[in-house]
């Protein structure tokens, strides 16, 4: 195992109806003037927004609203939120939704105290020492953002979408409310997208060159198996509370870094997908569903033992110890079958992206100084082009 330093400061409040207490919870954390930040429709249509506003009214908290956060949250909404917070002297932000809303809330919270353009935090990696406190009411699993130091924002620069990442301990929410019933507003296809995202969160820690970390290996495999089993249940029985509860808890753990402690991590699938969604504004989970099987196929031979272990322990493939390549390949096939059964896209064509755009996507990948990405197996431009070509051909 590698050396590590692990600290989690987010209070997790779990179960049915817990969002109805959010007013008192925010007040206990010092909130007096709150910005309620949310997405486009679900919070209003479900009645959740009204319940939260009534909760604030009961404890005498003043609140303001900023809605219409979109997938791949935009910088313009962040600028709007920063201005509103400064103008109204907001002292707390409550995000209602998933990772897009929480990421937007983090950027606003950090930007309020930043003396300059908040975009510098992302492009010039300016360090944030202070931000407004943030709470989250999750309406979808897999966000991960509710416990993490990370945020990703997209900016339209002269007609080109630019997606940037920032990281700060100041971004970590002080609490997150997890009520699995609130995920019921998600269509099955959207539930599929977020489950693919959490699956990739785990694999980014699982496929690691770190040796002798069996405990975190088994934690990873347990989460992955939980996602596979319960995602299929939700597709068959959307009202199954226990399946949704397991997925919501798995989604939070999947990005908490508990099982990534002491392990080298590799975020290549997310980096490649980010290049796709920046150009084509695709849903993150949809892009990952296309990239992941192609990536695993490409790196399969880097560590056949680990790939075969994944196949055996997560997808119950019978391990052929005399032919680990076959076991590994069968595991990738089972993964593709699983994604297909959940109506996930199988190829770039399913995302309405033509193969002629592969070179453009590769140019948009955020390579490191040595012109590679990844740690498990370093990938250069030719490698990424090969992965995208595989992704283009899958499903045909």
From TrEMBL:
InterPro entries noted in UniProt: ADH_Fe/GldA, ADH_Fe_C, BDH-like
Enzyme class: oxidoreductase
Domain Fe-containing alcohol dehydrogenase-like C-terminal stretches: 195-389
Keywords tagged on the record: Oxidoreductase
Alcohol dehydrogenase iron-type/glycerol dehydrogenase GldA domain: residues covered: 10-180
Cofactor: Fe cation
Entry EC no(s): 1.1.1.-
Molecular-function annotations in GO: alcohol dehydrogenase (NADP+) activity; butanol dehydrogenase (NAD+) activity; metal ion binding; methylglyoxal reductase (NADPH) (acetol producing) activity
Gene3D superfamilies associated with the record: 3.40.50.1970, Dehydroquinate synthase-like - alpha domain
Keyword Oxidoreductase appears in the UniProt entry: yes
Gene Ontology CC annotations of this record: cytosol
Top-level division of the source organism's lineage: Bacteria
Family of the protein in this entry: Belongs to the iron-containing alcohol dehydrogenase family.
Protein name, UniProt field: NADH-dependent butanol dehydrogenase A
Species in which this protein is naturally found: Anaerobiospirillum thomasii
């Amino acid at each position: 195992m590698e050396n590590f330093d692990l600290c989690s400061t987010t209070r997790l409040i779990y179960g049915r109806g817990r969002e109805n207490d959010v007013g008192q919870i925010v007040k206990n954390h010092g909130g007096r003037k709150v910005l309620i930040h949310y997405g486009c429709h679900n919070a209003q249509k479900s009645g959740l927004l009204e319940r939260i506003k009534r909760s604030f009214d009961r404890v005498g908290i003043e609140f303001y609203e900023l809605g219409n956060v979109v997938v791949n949250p935009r910088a313009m909404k962040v600028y709007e939120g920063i201005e509103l917070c400064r103008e109204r002297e907001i002292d707390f932000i409550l995000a209602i939704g998933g990772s897009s809303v929480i990421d937007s809330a983090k950027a606003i919270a950090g930007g309020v105290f930043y003396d300059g353009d908040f975009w510098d935090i992302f492009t010039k990696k300016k360090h944030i020492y202070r931000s407004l406190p943030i709470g989250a009411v999750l309406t979808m699993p897999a966000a991960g953002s509710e416990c993490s130091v990370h945020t990703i924002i997209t900016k339209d620069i002269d007609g080109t979408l630019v997606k940037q990442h920032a990281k700060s301990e100041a971004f970590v929410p002080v609490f997150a409310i997890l009520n699995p019933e609130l995920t019921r507003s998600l269509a099955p296809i959207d539930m599929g997208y977020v489950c693919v995202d959490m699956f990739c969160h785990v694999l980014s820690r699982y496929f690691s060159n770190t040796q002798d970390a069996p405990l975190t290996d088994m934690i990873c495999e347990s989460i992955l198996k939980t996602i596979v089993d319960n995602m299929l249940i939700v597709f068959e029985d959307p009202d199954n509370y226990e399946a949704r509860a397991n997925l919501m808890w798995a989604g939070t753990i999947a990005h908490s870094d508990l099982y990534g402690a002491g392990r080298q991590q590799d975020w290549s699938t997310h980096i490649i997908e980010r290049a796709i969604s920046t150009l084509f504004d695709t849903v993150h989970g949809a892009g990952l569903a296309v990239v992941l099987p192609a990536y695993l196929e490409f790196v399969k031979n880097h560590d056949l033992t680990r790939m075969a272990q994944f196949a055996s322990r997560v997808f119950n493939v019978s391990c052929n110890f005399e032919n680990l390549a076959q076991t590994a390949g069968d595991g990738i096939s089972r993964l593709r079958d699983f994604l297909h059964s959940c109506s996930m896209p199988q190829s770039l064509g399913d995302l309405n992206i033509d193969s002629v755009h592969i070179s453009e996507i590769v140019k948009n990948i955020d390579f490191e100084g040595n012109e590679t990405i990844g740690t498990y197996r370093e990938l250069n431009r030719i490698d990424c082009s090969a992965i995208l070509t595989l992704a283009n051909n899958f499903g045909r």
